[in-house]
Amino acid sequence: MNGFRQRMTKFMYGRYGNDQLSRLYLGLALACLVMNLFTDLTAFYLAGIALLIYGIYRSFSKDIARMSAQNQKYLNWRYQRLVKFNNTKKHWAQRKEYRFYQCPGCRQKVRVPRGRGKIAITCPKCHAEFIKKS
After folding, report:
1. Are 108 and 124 in contact, with CB atoms under 8 Å apart?
2. What values do phi and psi take at 127, rounded to 5?
3. By 3-state DSSP, what share of the chain in percent is helix, strand and coil, each rounded to 5?
4. Which one of 14, 22, 29, 109 is least enclosed by Cβ atoms within 10 Å?
5. pTM of this prediction?
6. E strands, the chain, where?
7. Which of 26, 80, 73 is CA-nearest to residue 48?
């Protein structure tokens, strides 16, 4: 067993390895192949095989800089989606006490308390003033 581990370590030396994007591709490949079992559509089979091949290619690639840049781009995209989801969840939880408006000048979101009637709202970012019902 130890000899196999040494050979595998030697083989993977200088290769990129497994990252979050490769795991995503392999997971999507598995999902497509399972969907193919239930639906018997060739499109799921072909997509699953293509994703599987590309995920393995990424893991064994020696172009570390390019694979790392792709992974970083994916991680940034995923982080932005997570932040947007968390903000939406926060707004949903606070919807009974506060109203949320966008500044017409800079599109900054502004939170104001409910039940105050018509109020003048000053944007904290660009200091534009606009009137809304709270």
Report:
1. yes
2. 60, 25
3. 60, 15, 25
4. 14
5. 0.71
6. 98-102, 109-113, 118-122, 129-133
7. 26
